[in-house]
Amino acid sequence: MIKIFTTGGTIDKTYFDQKDLYQVGEPQVAGILERANVVVDFEVSSLMKKDSLELDNTDRQILRDAILSEQSRHIIVTHGTDTMIETAAFLQNIPNKTIVLTGSMYPAQYRDSDAIFNLGCTLIAAQILESGVYIAMNGRIFDPLNSVKNIALNRFENK
Predict the structure, then answer these.
(1) Domains in the chain, start-ordered, CATH in brackets?
(2) In the chain, pLDDT over 90 holds for what percent of residues?
């Protein structure tokens, strides 16, 4: 079974009439996987509904503790992209777990969102990678300690 922890971020955002007003809504991951007819057993647990810029080390510790107490060794974390690398670094050195973080540059509710593709990549990565912490974005798997978010190009890259 794959355990999916959601923390919020753009993947779960809902925008209102004005472009600068939004709120992090309900986790979208279960609906995405159900519509994709995924047959892998998974369970979703929503830990928080925050923009990643609002996450602090107390939130990261909640996530770390949840992963440590989880029986499954295959872990997915949906997360906002702005501080995803920082959270991935915080999750280092958790033994016997394959932890893959992902998110999206556009809300999952948008027709052209990258959320569905990123989540699909993450689902496969969590099943086949060795224990460790990874980021799955833009069709690639990244070592979070050697990657950056290129804000100008709206993508993740190696350092």
Answers:
(1) 2-158 (3.40.50.1170)
(2) 69
